[in-house]
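Newbie here. two chains, one complex. Structure please?
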Amino acid sequence: MSATKPILALNRYEPGAVNAFAPALAERLAKRQATFGAASVLFYEQPIEMVRGQGVHLYDASGRRYLDMYNNVPSVGHCHPEVVSAIAAQAAALNVHTRYLNRMVEGYAERLLGKFPAPLGNLVMTCTGSESNDLAMRIAIAVTGKRGFIVTRSAYHGNTAAVTAISPSSFSAAPVAPHVRLIPAPDEAAAPDGDVGASFAAHVRAAIDSLNEAGIGFAGLVVDSIFSSDGIFADPPGFLKKTLAVVHEAGGLFIADEVQPGFGRTGGGLWGFSRHGIVPDIVTMGKPMGNGYPMGGVVTRPDYLAQFCQETGYFNTFGGNPVAAAAGNAVLDVLEGEGLVENAAQVGGLLCRELLGLQREFSRIGGVRGAGLFIGLDFNDPETGAPDTPMASHVINAMKQSGILIGAAGLYGHTLKIRPPLCFTAGHASFFLETLRRILSEGA
Amino acid sequence: MSATKPILALNRYEPGAVNAFAPALAERLAKRQATFGAASVLFYEQPIEMVRGQGVHLYDASGRRYLDMYNNVPSVGHCHPEVVSAIAAQAAALNVHTRYLNRMVEGYAERLLGKFPAPLGNLVMTCTGSESNDLAMRIAIAVTGKRGFIVTRSAYHGNTAAVTAISPSSFSAAPVAPHVRLIPAPDEAAAPDGDVGASFAAHVRAAIDSLNEAGIGFAGLVVDSIFSSDGIFADPPGFLKKTLAVVHEAGGLFIADEVQPGFGRTGGGLWGFSRHGIVPDIVTMGKPMGNGYPMGGVVTRPDYLAQFCQETGYFNTFGGNPVAAAAGNAVLDVLEGEGLVENAAQVGGLLCRELLGLQREFSRIGGVRGAGLFIGLDFNDPETGAPDTPMASHVINAMKQSGILIGAAGLYGHTLKIRPPLCFTAGHASFFLETLRRILSEGA
């Protein structure tokens, strides 16, 4: 089984490239390369130095403003004053682990758990989505007694050893591990009879059979319900129901990775899985949870957590500290106070309709899919239908020239990933649409 | 191979215990148990509700002050104003990932790398010590092509799937994984001829042989150079030199876990490994790095990081964000500005001498060991020499009654773990010594 090349091979700075950078920038880049080494990745052939963020905007060192349609971590807006002051106040008062009682932490845990359906009654606080998915995998192994996991072909679930094994979009030379099965993303357009629910469930069923035949057994399916790294596949709502039934019938757990769709992005409630009318066995959270404060979480059934804890203790030093809880509380306050879930649904819906209109005008747009403020736009060769990765790359760079930050996703990197902070307005959408129309009109 | 029971079985709240808690506290505890579930651990039979921290002190909900001799994360002092204001200022300005250039982040990376000997030239920023050790293990596997790791018998290196496998102090029912070998802690008192350097190196050599014979091979030795969870073994400085030679001769990597000893705690420079005059192949950092802001790091040789990156991409969303860098910078500023490494050496030295004096008075004190402000004090049966775990537990609870927070470590949990913030003064040491003398005089 071959793995995909990382999307980031496009639109990134190539160390040692012969670009004619200004000496000051060239020196910065050399220093950065010397300290961060081979793990350094910088967006764009000519990287941007960022100095300030506010709402949907980032500002570079020259004062230039960029409309941020890429960064999903500062979900309620860059440097939101309510979140910043909550962090500052709590950091000045107390920052300690969870082995003492603390009202801020307990209040947040209760409030957050109140957003989940029964029987998802326990919360473990971590520091990152990676730690959350790592723990979720261990819980699934403890509960099922099996080791096999199923993920989609270009999935990304995080960066620990265990989670990298289920993150094929991170593989470059590494082969797929024996306990992992990759299945195609749930692409409605490619599904037989257009029944993506049945076809996705059938792929999961086949992968379970394969794990069982190999004597590995099936522990869990890990999916983010918007299939972010695969190219964003959201519709129709409810298509994951059949898959949930298949997973449970086989004795496995359904792990909903809400690191990307969670906290309102899809516009259909706080969680991506809500749109599908399903109750997962484990839910993992990360990125937008603290609007940039490093925090994550795992929500699961108390009996599952208890089964896991019989074998191994779990403690997370920074996880659930009162500053994280204050940040998380402020994020929920802002989401509710500013109606950002509704905004994601409304502005995202508008944007999606406009993009579908643009698709009728420009034959290079091969598809538009999404939910709320998470939209994928494919570029394809109008004649052959082949993924047009260079066009996506061209648009990303042209957008940068026009003051818009945006990235790509999908197996071929030909899908524009539209994922702005949730305070994105109709005005911002207009600016983006005008810019996209102009770039497409000018051609590649 | 049997694993140890977690130390925390002592001096923790037992859910459902028939203690006569006040109704308000009982309700809090029930709620906390309902949300955190089986993963909930609270210190002390009657847990403390914390509301405020300042310097070396924590304050509970009733306003009671505790001298903190347990918490090693707020290393420059709870809620240090310089760190708090650095976090607040940067969080208000910009908080974003490392794929854009940013002076705060690059400046911190260069400054931190300047504290390491050649050839340790690259830094990967993570969010936790667990993520750091997880990544270090993967780098070691990539560089050596082998999978086996060696750790001490009661080690704790973190909470991911991979790192838990090398953290025997977390095991309860779980067996030791086939690719892991446990060796005894380097206890000078138990070493033949008192040559702990030779005996520890011999144990490592035997474990390497065992991994090779099993066809697993040797990837790395992971040790924290103060052996925190094993009961604190610091002396003589330099005893790890022989072990480093053995590790390198076998083609493995020496991974120095500086999550506990790092950032000045041992008083002999910034790093625990400095005291031993060795240069590790990989250094991992966490806990005190941001004085409570969730951050960690891995420092290694550029060629090792490059080898790792050939196989797999590594990106950490929150790792190396500008707020973390600001916190990390402020921690280095305070360490330098307030002379805290020197303070750790001086006050720690004083405290250690006084405790050795107390040992001559009280036969229940079986040993005193440490470096800087990381000291272990054993309780043993004066007649049989057997570890006296109940006595350690009694002292921890009596200390709480006297307004001092302290914990235990070691295979038997009979070692008092003395690990205050580094702004601990001679006055604080006197209060602790007087309290300990009184508790010991009163008997258990």
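Moderator note: Chain B touches chain A through 97 residues (CB under 8 Å). The CA atoms of residues 224 and 257 of chain B lie 4 Å apart. Thread marked as resolved.
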